[in-house]
Amino acid sequence: MGSLSRSTEPQHAKLKVSAKVKTFVLDTNVLLHDPQSIHKFEDNNLVIPVEVLEELDAIKTEQSTERGRNARRVHRILQELLPDSRSMLEGVKLPGGGTLSVIINRYLTDANLNSPAMLRLRAVLPDLSKKDNRIIACALFVQEQFPPPTILVTKDVNVQLKARAVGLESEDYLNDKVPEAAEERAYREVPVTIYELQRFCSEGGFDLGAEASAGLVVNEYVLLRSDEGKTMPARYHGGGMIHRLRIPDFVKAPGGIPIRPRNLEQQFFVDALLDDSISMVTCFGKAGTGKTLLSIACALQQTHDDASRYDGVSISRPVIALGKDIGFLPGTLDEKMKPWLQPYFDALEVLVPSKPPKEAQFASKKVAKKNRGRNGDVANLFADPQPMQGSNNGQRAPGAPPLKPYERLIRSGLVEVEALCFIRGRSIARRFFILDEAQQLTPHEVKTVITRIAEGSKIVLIGDPAQIDNPYVDSRSNGLVYCCNRMRGQPMAAHITLTKGERSRLAELAADLL
C-alpha cells in the first residue's frame, strides 16, 4: 500500500481504482472475530494497518482462548498471502478478487509530513499512543493518499464513533450478520376449513397444498385455525405435509416431578426436544420462558428411557460475566465453574427436588410411589451412593451433608455439567448436549461446538438475543442467531421462539418493562 521509504515519494500499492471499488481498512477485532474475513470483501481493496499486526502478536500467546487461536490463524493466512516484505508493502492480488496490503502510516513516522486530516485527528484524538487512535490515523492516511473511498471496518462501536468524528466513514463487519427483518413472530397461523381440521385430528396429518404451504420451511411450527375459531398446533414436514405434535402429558427426570408445557410455544419446544429425527434445536426466549428447565427435563426423560439413544446429558455455557468481572476464582475446576453453572443446579433442584413440593398435584401418595420405584436402576441411583475414592477409606466425612438428588445424577455420570472452553478436540457421541447462553458466542465459536457433535447425539442451543454481554457480537451477528438463520429449513434442524414468561408474574413484568 504505502510504506516508509528513503525516497520523498510514497510507494503505492497495486490498488484497483473504479467507481465501484472501495478500500476497507480492517481493525484487529474483525480478524479475531473471523480470520477468513480477508477473503470476504469481494473485488475491493483490503488494508491491514501495521498496528493490527502488533495487537495480533500480543494476543497469539493466549493458548486456551479462541482469541489466541484466531490470532494464530490470521498470522498463518497472512504468511501465505504475503510471503515477503515487498508483497506486504506493495500489496498482492487475492484469489477471490481485490487486493491485500499492510500499511505503515507515514504521517506518524515522519514529523515533517502533515495533512489537514492528521491535524484534525490530533485536535480531536491527541493521544496517539493508543492503538485504536493509531488505526484510525492509518485509515485517514489511506483516505488521503489513494483514490477509492475508504471505510474503516471495526466491531468496536466506540472506534466507529471516533472515526466518524474525524471525518472517516466506518461500519461494522456485516458478512456474518443475519438480514435485518421485521419483528419475528413466535409462529404462523394457517387458515383451514373445519373439515380439514377434523381430518387433521383424525388422521394426524394432511396435505396443505402448494398455496397454503408457500413460505413455510421444514420443521416450522404453525397453528391451524378454522373460521369457527377452532385451533390445532402442527409441524410442517415439507412437500405441503403437516403433522400433529407428538408430546406426552408430561416429562420428568428419573425420581423427579412431572413437568408439563404451560403454553403453545412450550408445546412446540417439547415436540422438537423429544423428536429423534431432529438433531439440532435452536430456541430464542427472554428470561423465564422455560428454555433451560424444559431442555433439561426432556433430556433427562430421554436418557432414562431404555429405548433412548442417549447415554447422558451434557450442559454447558460460555464463561462471560454480567457486569464487572470479580477476577479469578479459587479452588479446583469444579469449584471454579460452580458459580457459572449454578443456574443448571437450580434447574435440576426444581426437576429433582430434595423435598417434596407443597403443591397438591405433586404431594399425593400415588405420585410419590410412582416416582420411587419405576425400576431397579432408578432405585439404585437414588439410594445411598457407593463409597467414593479418597480419604476415610472412600467414605464420606463424618457430619458431611447428604447428597442432593441432582448431585447423585452428576456423580453417576448421567448428567455432565462442563466448561465450554475445553470442548475443542472432543467428539461427543450419544449425548444430549445443551448449550445455554449461546447468544454470547461468535458464529465461529458456535461452529466449533456443533462440529463436536457425533452420530447419535443431539444439541440444543438456547438463549436470548436481547441479552448480550459479549462486546464483539450483537443481536444480528451472535452465534445463536447466525446458526438459526443458516440452518433454517434443514430436515435435521428446528427453531422455536418462546415469548411468554412462566417463571412468575414479577419476572414476566420485569422482562417486558425493564
TrEMBL record:
InterPro entries given in the database record: P-loop_NTPase, PhoH, PhoH2-like, PIN-like_dom_sf, PIN_dom
An example Gene Ontology molecular-function term: ATP binding
Official protein name in the record: Phosphate starvation-inducible protein PhoH
UniProt keyword annotations, A-Z: ATP-binding, Nucleotide-binding
GO CC, one annotated term: cytosol
Alphabetized CDD domains for the sequence: PIN_VapC_PhoHL-ATPase (cd09883)
The keyword Glycoprotein belongs to this UniProt entry's keyword annotation: no
Superkingdom: Bacteria
Domain PIN: 22-161
Family designation: Belongs to the PhoH family.
